[in-house]
TrEMBL record:
<feature type="binding site">
    <location>
        <position position="153"/>
    </location>
    <ligand>
        <name>substrate</name>
    </ligand>
</feature>
<dbReference type="GO" id="GO:0034213">
    <property type="term" value="P:quinolinate catabolic process"/>
</dbReference>
<dbReference type="InterPro" id="IPR037128">
    <property type="entry name" value="Quinolinate_PRibosylTase_N_sf"/>
</dbReference>
<dbReference type="InterPro" id="IPR036068">
    <property type="entry name" value="Nicotinate_pribotase-like_C"/>
</dbReference>
<feature type="binding site">
    <location>
        <position position="96"/>
    </location>
    <ligand>
        <name>substrate</name>
    </ligand>
</feature>
<feature type="binding site">
    <location>
        <position position="163"/>
    </location>
    <ligand>
        <name>substrate</name>
    </ligand>
</feature>
<dbReference type="Pfam" id="PF02749">
    <property type="entry name" value="QRPTase_N"/>
</dbReference>
<feature type="binding site">
    <location>
        <begin position="263"/>
        <end position="265"/>
    </location>
    <ligand>
        <name>substrate</name>
    </ligand>
</feature>
<feature type="binding site">
    <location>
        <position position="193"/>
    </location>
    <ligand>
        <name>substrate</name>
    </ligand>
</feature>
<dbReference type="InterPro" id="IPR027277">
    <property type="entry name" value="NadC/ModD"/>
</dbReference>
<feature type="binding site">
    <location>
        <position position="214"/>
    </location>
    <ligand>
        <name>substrate</name>
    </ligand>
</feature>
<keyword id="KW-0662">Pyridine nucleotide biosynthesis</keyword>
<comment type="subunit">
    <text>Hexamer formed by 3 homodimers.</text>
</comment>
<dbReference type="InterPro" id="IPR022412">
    <property type="entry name" value="Quinolinate_PRibosylTrfase_N"/>
</dbReference>
<feature type="binding site">
    <location>
        <begin position="129"/>
        <end position="131"/>
    </location>
    <ligand>
        <name>substrate</name>
    </ligand>
</feature>
<dbReference type="GO" id="GO:0009435">
    <property type="term" value="P:NAD+ biosynthetic process"/>
</dbReference>
<dbReference type="GO" id="GO:0004514">
    <property type="term" value="F:nicotinate-nucleotide diphosphorylase (carboxylating) activity"/>
</dbReference>
């Protein structure tokens, strides 16, 4: 387990007051042992199971967790995901932290899988964004991959994406791209966010490597893709902005011929995956 994940888990256990669980301490004998199971209550893709297991064992090394499926597995309703045995008090005190991670990350993986399925056969790929919960980006982006999606930038330091405010501050797309080229290592691609066909043309003439079609209608997006493919087939095309996770909308966007569709919704708006822990 990544040490950064370990620190996050420890902090969330502390946040939940798990080390002074007054309800459990007052109602459950300290000597009582228990066996329990983690159960999926709906169909979907599992992510965060190893993190959930780590929450139990970090809280109390006497707890044993046996995984019955692996992260990335597609499960059915009422399927058992793991069994847990150990001190009853410790299992109860770590339960909510473990299930919070598992439910949140499985929700992301499941929604991502839905979006990937919606555009199957089009040649486009689903990307995430930087719209993640503070401190959870690595875990959330891992969940996207488990759901069949791909990762966009992990942070501001690993890719150049020139957005509308950069363009305004630099004085235009051409000036922004030229400035980025002067500073960027030769291995970095330069991506430009465009909201109009005129901006697309300027980005092409400035030799952008990737053009993001932001908040465009499907009709305008199609015209942009056609223009880019005719002028420079090597340029990668990304669609973004208010696309959402509706299957029909995703397929329409993908059918324009874009290479990527980036969706903030798969991380910031994924429904919690319904999971429970039950004592035997």
């Amino acid at each position: 387990m990544n040490s950064a994940f370990t620190d996050i888990i420890k902090r969330t256990l502390e946040e939940d007051g798990a080390y002074c669980d007054v309800t459990t301490l007052s109602t459950v004998p300290g000597t009582q042992q228990a066996q329990a199971a983690i159960i999926a209550r709906r169909a979907g893709v599992i992510a965060g199971l190893e993190v959930a297991a780590q929450a139990f064992t970090l809280f109390d090394a006497r707890i044993t967790v046996t995984l019955l499926v692996q992260d990335g597995a597609t499960v059915k309703p009422d399927e058992r995901l793991a069994t847990i045995s150990g001190p009853a008090r410790s299992i109860l005190s770590a339960e909510r932290t473990a299930l919070n991670f598992l439910g949140h990350l499985s929700g992301i993986a499941t929604l991502t899988a839905h979006c990937v399925s919606a555009i199957e056969g089009t040649g486009a790929h689903i990307l995430d964004t930087r719209k993640t919960m503070p401190g959870l980006r690595m875990l959330e982006k891992q969940a996207v991959r488990l759901g069949g999606g791909q990762n966009h930038r992990f942070g501001l330091d690993d890719g150049i994406l020139i957005k509308d405010n950069h363009i305004k501050a630099a004085g235009g797309i051409t000036q922004a791209v030229e400035a980025a080229r002067r500073m960027a290592p030769h291995l970095f691609k330069v991506e430009v966010e465009c909201e109009t066909l005129e901006q697309v043309q300027e980005a092409l003439e400035a030799r952008a490597d990737v053009i993001m079609l932001d908040n465009m209608s499907v009709e305008v997006m199609q015209a942009a893709v056609t223009s880019i493919r005719e002028q420079n087939p090597q340029v990668l095309i990304e669609a973004s902005g208010s696309i959402g996770t509706d299957e029909k909308r995703l397929k329409a966007v993908a059918s324009t011929g874009v290479d990527f569709i980036s969706l903030g919704a798969i991380t910031h708006s994924a429904p919690q995956f319904d999971i429970s822990l039950e004592f035997a």
